[in-house]
Amino acid sequence: MTRVERAIVIGGGIGGLTAAVALHQRGVRVTVLERAGSLEPVGAAISLAPNALRGLDVIGLGDEIRALSAWQGDGGLRAPRGRWLSRSSAAAAAERFGGPLVLLHRATLIGHLAARLPSGAVRTATAARLLDPGAPDRPARVGTSDGERETDLVVAADGIHSAVRRALFPDHPGPGYAGFTTWRVVIELPGVEFASHETWGRGRIWGTHPLQDGRVYAYAAAVAPAGERAPDDERAALLRLYGDWHAPIPDVLAAARPEDVLRHDVHHITEPLPAYHHGRVALVGDAAHAMPPTLGQGGNQAIEDAVTLAHHTGDLPAYTAARLPRTTAIARQAVKVARLNLMTGRVGIAVRDHAIAALSKAGPALFLRGFDGIADWRPPQQPYASQRTTAGKG
């Protein structure tokens, strides 16, 4: 076991901040170095499944986030003309996996995590580079514009294009294009009632979901060449692709402005890394295992990584052993789901939709079945932070 008293986290996203909080609560002096000028994330909403919420329980934050759940009624999977292929509900999901699914804005989650860190622990507008991964007999070294820092542990949470990953594994091919692009928007949609849904078309999907603050989160994905962009604007592109789909999709598009729409091509790590650690450095989140968003597990797995890493702080090989097989399997499942919900052949789509409807009538909705073995994950450590706090008051 390696003694860890100091840690530097490179990247102030969900995985990095969760790791920082978990390490801080275990008595480690943590510094978070974030390249951007603020922690305000670029993005829209994130779906937290029960596995991630149990991870947040470890740092005493789970119940705060569960209280932000907005999905209370029915929902499910639809066809572009509105036919329901599969129905489910918040209650069914909670019963199957022991907790709710929570959709919230990324900025909200970032704010809750940052509030758990001591003043001065997060340094924004601070780019960092790995100078030396360290070894059992020497610390790791990180360089910034202010000079070099030595530390017992480096947590690399610097995203899909991780410079730390490239430094640790220079022969790894890195991320590749997944074959599709995504759009996201968060808007006000007053007076429009709808059931939470995802809709699968021909090489295209759309999702519309309520947030607790009254806004609506919508996302879309479509098979497209890498780097392609609309000749006018991305809202216009969405109108061309989805404008004739079922309600409330036209309402969302009517309410959105061009500047509300974010578009990003999807890249993922197709070849698993040989390990999630090297020397005194551990990779978390997209830096380790970027995956397509089709299971909504990217941020969830980053949270799992973070609390598992804190549990194995002094034994990084154990961290790799705990995380690499699981995340590799989930990433592969996300690729399979992308092939299913972004099919382009008419005959295959007809067979797919018929099978989904038949399977959902015979048992739990396909949406729920897809989370078996994922959403039922439990963290490796107890008691959780919330339980330690309660015990201390007795």
TrEMBL record:
The keyword Oxidoreductase applies. Gene3D superfamilies: FAD/NAD(P)-binding domain (3.50.50.60). Pfam families: FAD_binding_3 (PF01494). The keyword GTP-binding does not apply. Residues 7-311 form the FAD-binding domain. Transmembrane segments: none annotated. GO terms for molecular function: monooxygenase activity. Keywords: Monooxygenase, Oxidoreductase. This is FAD-dependent monooxygenase. It comes from Streptomyces griseoloalbus.
